[in-house]
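USER:
I wish I could look at a protein chain and see how it folds. I am handing you a single protein, as its sequence and its fold in token form. As I understand it, each token names a local backbone shape. I hope you can help me see how the letters and the tokens relate. The protein I mean follows directly.
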Amino acid sequence: MSLCDTCKDPGFCCREIPLVYKRSPVLFRHGTSAEQMTQFAKVAKLPFLPLRPFFCIKMKPERAAQAEIDGAHGAMFGYAVDDLAGHGEPHVVAQTWMWRCPHLTPAGRCGIYETRPALCRAFEPGKDKLCVHYSPPDQGETMTKAEVA
């Protein structure tokens, strides 16, 4: 029996998924539409659908220029937290998106479990912040859904 069989909120891990690359959120040009995100997901072969913009971030222009950029879709990969612009500094506005799995059943379970993508197979319940059973290595208590989000 896995943690998924006793989950307090089945499907939580697949309803709102942030894209992360090298421990940083994947950023897109500010104002990128859901239609453009759907196209990006197809090209990137992501098994998810765009849900909604999550937050906007200001980056120093020189750092945004140095990030690995998918020019066709405006995705920026590999920025670091210290690349953020402060108040009054010139900046580039980018946004992150939340994604969702289109195969999640109404019961919160995977509708394609036997043929799910490798990305989903690699997910380990309890070891990722997307899981409601996640417990950070240095703490012994389970985080609540509000703390994870």
